Amino acid sequence: MAVVVQCFHCNAVLELDEGFRGGVCRCSGCGSLLQVPKGERSPKGRRIRPAAPGSTPAAVEPTSPSTAPVADQPAPPPDQRSPRADRRPSVDASGLSSGLRQVHKTRPISTSSSKDNTKTVPEMPAAPLSATSPPALPRNVRQNNKLLWTSLILIGVIAVVVIVLLVSYVLRPEEQPPAAQQGLPTSQPAAREASFIGIPLTGRRIILSVDAAASMSDSFDYIRRGIARSAGRLADNQPILVTLWTNDGLKRLPASGFGKGEAFIKELTDSLQSAAPEGASDAEKCMQETLGLAGPGDQVIFITAKNPLPASLATTVLANRKDNVRVDGVKLVTQDTPSPLEAMAAASGGQYVFLVPSELDQATR
Fold first, then answer.
1. Three-state secondary structure readout of 265-295
2. Alpha helices, DSSP H only, in the chain?
3. Pseudo-torsion of CA 245, 246, 250, 252, nearest 10°?
4. Residues contacting 111, CB < 8 A, separation 6+
5. For residue 52, what pLDDT is reported?
């Protein structure tokens, strides 16, 4: 036999299963907790209305046949029952099974023995079924999932960095042993720009024209050392030639002419070692012959300590210069005023350098 109670808050009429007698249920309309009476039925067929906390439950008497207890009505045939009639009591968030079914959407309930004092219960919306939406994950589960994904991303980033470092370490070029262990001169780095006494060697071909007269006796050894070091720093596509001003005219070193490569540089160095400054030299004639050996794009450097050099030397020498031949000048010991070597350099886009003996040693290293 069903138990019919009325909520003391919203006046909703609830029909409960027999198992709720003497227990607690929750109103499906307002959610209030209701105490279900233990007795089977109240006198004269009245429904029992749970009282508010701290008060005595009051009985509710129906005033008309339409408001008779649901328990007195005959049960409809199985094929006419509502689909919700066979549902089991649901369980709310507090763990209490509500097991509530509204008798009718709208039912007048009598609150006293008088038929004029009836009250209509408002229609209550049906509670949404929890089965239609997925249950929300607890907060601690969401936090754990977020922490897990963060850890996985961090581990992936670290793994990528480690792989990149390992690949760069494996693919890096092998370290070369020191130059001394390879048999190369340690004082001649390959990446150093080729120059002679501070003058860059940028020409298509290089001609170093050196005065070998007696005036060069104190400077010739420094010039010889500077030529050997500069020749070893030239690019592979830059041939070099050395000409000497001697008593007999211009002399080529080596006699074969322009050359490049290690074997040629060794031959050039040996030729310079056997040469020695002596006597006098004709500066104008040797300089003109040297310019006759140069072609477009070549670079000629005149080196002399002869004093004095006539100022007209620049005009007569440059008369034999071909187009696009650069002329540089190096004057040692004594400065000329004006200097024809400086005038030649200025006219051909070259560079002029003057050095005293104390500066020559450092400049040729």
1. HHHHHHHHHHCCCCCCCCHHHHHHHHHHHCC
2. 139-171, 220-232, 262-274, 283-293, 313-318, 340-348, 357-363
3. -90
4. 60, 117, 118, 119
5. 52
Nearest to residue 309, comparing CAs of 342, 340, 277? 340
Q: How many CB atoms lie within 10 A of CB 49?
A: 21
Residue with tokens 């793994």: 159
Tokens encoding 76 = 């409809």
* Interhelix angle 220-232/262-274, nearest 10 degrees: 180
C-alpha 347/C-alpha 350 separation (Å) is 8
Domains of the chain listed by start with CATH number = 3-127 (no CATH), 195-363 (3.40.50.410)
Burial, 325: exposed, middle or buried (Cβ in 10 Å; 0-12, 13-18, 19+)?
Answer: buried
pLDDT at 114: 41
pLDDT of residue 113: 41
Q: How many CA atoms lie within 13 A of 262 on its CB side?
A: 2
Average confidence (pLDDT) per 10 residues, the chain, 365 residues = 83 85 86 79 48 46 41 47 44 44 43 45 48 59 84 93 86 55 47 82 95 93 93 92 91 91 92 92 93 94 93 91 93 91 95 92 88
Round to whole Å and give the CA distance between 285 and 242: 16
How many other β-carbons are positioned within 10 Å of the β-carbon of residue 264?
A: 16
Contact 47, 56 (CB under 8 A): no
pLDDT at 105: 41
Per-residue model confidence (pLDDT) at position 357? 85
Strand order in the sheet with 326-332: 249-253, 240-246, 206-211, 299-304, 326-332, 352-355
Tell me how many degrees the CA angle 34-36-39 measures, rounded to the nearest 5: 160
Task: Single out the residue of 34, 36, 5 nearest to residue 20, CA to CA.
Answer: 36
Cis peptide before 62 (omega within 30 of 0): no
